[in-house]
Amino acid sequence: MILLILVCRYYRGALGAMLVYDITKHPTFENVPRWLHELKDHANRDIVLLMVGNKLDLVSDGSVPRGVTEEQTAATQHEVGRCSV
Questions:
Q1: Rg (CA), the chain
Q2: pLDDT tens string 38-69
Q3: DSSP letter, residue 84
Q4: What is the pLDDT of residue 22?
Q5: 24, 39, 71, 79: least CB-packed within 10 angstroms?
Q6: How far apart are CA 64 and CA 50, in angstroms?
Q7: For residue 82, which of 53, 51, 54 has the smallest C-alpha distance?
Q8: Which DSSP state fits 85?
Q9: Residues in Cβ contact with 28 at an 8 Å cutoff, skipping those fewer than 6 apart
């Protein structure tokens, strides 16, 4: 119950939210729908959402394989873009 109260307070009054995931680790990408659900439940309906795939530099230089495909990202960005919080 305390966690729920903290989540509500955390989102209250927010004008924007950044949903940041690690493109080299798919499990972090799997959190995006949960974050959207939390925002829908607790944030202002007019909140601006921005989804960011982090660590592209590691993939670009070939040191780490990509864990989230560009197609997966595009599909989820589409969902975020049409999400009415």
A1: 14
A2: 888 888 888 888 888 999 999 888 889 999 98
A3: -
A4: 95
A5: 71
A6: 24
A7: 51
A8: -
A9: 21, 22
pLDDT of residue 40: 83
Residue with tokens 């950044």: 18
Please give the structure tokens belonging to residue 53. Answer: 């795939």
Distances (CA, A) of 21 to 2, 5, 24, 35, 67: 26, 25, 9, 11, 11
Going along the chain from its start, the domains and CATH numbers come out as 2-81 (3.40.50.300)
- Residues 64 and 60: their CA atoms lie apart, in Å, by 8
Identify the residue with better confidence: 21 or 7: 21
Amino acid 13 reads G
Tokens of 11: 């989102």
CA distance 36 to 82: 11
Both tokens of residue 85? 């919080």
Give SS3 for 22: strand
